[in-house]
Amino acid sequence: MHVLIVGNGQLGKALYQVYAAKAQQTTVWAQPACDITQPVIAAHVAALAPDVVINAAAWTNVDGAESNPDGAYAVNALGARYLADGCAQCGAALVHVSTNEVFAGAPGCSYREYDQRSASSAYARSKLAGEVAVTAALRELYIVRVAWLFGAGGANFPAKIIAAADRMGALRVVADEFGNPTYAADAAAAIAQLVEARRYGIYHLVNEGWCSRYQLARHVLESSGRGHIEVTPISHKEWQRPSQPPLHAVLVNQAGAALGIRLRPWAEAIEEFCQVEFAWQKS
Ligand SMILES: NC(=O)c1ccc[n+]([C@@H]2O[C@H](COP(=O)([O-])OP(=O)(O)OC[C@H]3O[C@@H](n4cnc5c(N)ncnc54)[C@H](OP(=O)(O)O)[C@@H]3O)[C@@H](O)[C@H]2O)c1
Q1: Of 23, 25, 47, 208, which residue is most buried, by most CB within 10 angstroms?
Q2: How many independent structural domains does the chain possess?
Q3: Does the Cβ of 30 fall within 6 Å of ligand 1?
Q4: What is the rounded CA–CA span in Å between residue 217 and residue 212?
Q5: Any catalytic annotation for residue 142?
Q6: How many Cα atoms are found within 13 Å in the side-chain-facing hemisphere of 64?
Q7: Which pLDDT band holds residue 20 (cuts at 50, 70, 90)?
Q8: Could you tell me if the CB of 17 is within 6 A of ligand 1?
Q9: At residue 279, does pLDDT exceed 70?
Q10: 280 pLDDT band (50/70/90 cuts)?
């Protein structure tokens, strides 16, 4: 099986690690050579003719999408569609990666794979448009939603918390926004399992359990030897930002679990991530 990974960010890198360990034929396409907003990308996919394409490329600057919604849409919807078109031309399957933010996330809610979507921010609307676009183009399709992703070298929430703790010594963190922290390495391994299962559909491949940003920050600090750092819980209303993320877009992995694909609890994943990435630089 020849796997084409598109995108070289947190998830793209983790996917490459997983497939390299399997000694599987793997091709990685990344910017600047590969720009998925160019329609010609469909012909390039068709010419390569892989068995599976994994779209780990995305506009992930959630706040930046508010001032440039067309830019986000070009990558997250049109780019996804061009990859799906290329897959349709050569008979490849597509794994399209999406987000928990396609759901409204009303307080107390949690979402299974086939729940009603309702995106509000510009980023979320572009990701929802991507889901719609790839679904219209291709049947051999896995839509994999992840949430609060963290992986090696990424500008993710745990890395920002550690950097802020080392810079400021005390933190204020939002305590009324909830989600599923998800380790890119675990999501990548689960995606590989899913591809092997060959069961097309929609999946929520998140680490088990959920928490608030505040609880996540506390666990990151404790796991990286910074448990003494003071953290004050605040409301999202006290943390002004250009976009308003859904407050409770918590995903439930029902479809993957039915195939035996389960990710470990998020707290364990955070401990391993902190050990690998940050333990050597305890403050
Ligand atoms: N990060 C999260 O918390 C989170 C949460 C939920 C869902 N997701 C979804 O999970 C997936 C993976 O996210 P991630 O955290 O791995 O993202 P990431 O680290 O930001 O990586 C995204 C990758 O996409 C590439 N890219 C951007 N525009 C491109 C274009 N026009 N053509 C080709 N490549 C392009 C980026 O290249 P450059 O580095 O050169 O810009 C980067 O390699 C995305 O679909 C994202 O929406 C992420």
Answers
A1: 208
A2: 1
A3: yes
A4: 9
A5: no
A6: 7
A7: very high
A8: no
A9: no
A10: low
Name the residue range of residue 53's domain.
Answer: 2-156+181-208+250-264
Within-domain flag for 241: no
Pocket mutation for ligand 1, best pick of 4, 5, 6, 11 (most atoms within 8 Å of C-beta):
11
What are the DSSP E strand ranges found in 88-217? 93-99, 110-111, 141-146, 149-150, 170-174, 178-179, 182-183, 201-204, 211-212
> Higher-confidence residue: 124 or 23?
124
Q: Give the residue, by CA position, lying nearest to ligand 1 atom 48.
A: 149
Q: Domain with 47 in it: what CATH number?
A: 3.40.50.720
Residue 282 has pLDDT above 80, yes or no: no
Which of 31, 63, 117, 204 gets mutated to test ligand 1 (max ligand atoms within 8 A of its CB)? 31
Tell me how far the alpha carbon of residue 232 lies from the centroid of ligand 1, in angstroms.
Answer: 30
Catalytic residue among 82, 111, 123, 183: 123
Separation CA 144–CA 74 (nearest Å): 20
d(CA 229, CA 54): 39
DSSP 186-247: HHHHHHHHHHHHT--EEEE---BS-EEHHHHHHHHHHHTT-TTSEEEEE-GGGS--SS---T
- 123 token code pair: 């980023």
Q: Model confidence over 78-137: pLDDT tens digits?
A: 999 999 999 999 999 999 999 999 999 998 899 999 999 999 999 999 999 999 999 999
Question: How confident is the prediction for the chain on average, in pLDDT?
Answer: 96
Cis amide prior to 32 (ω within 30 degrees): yes
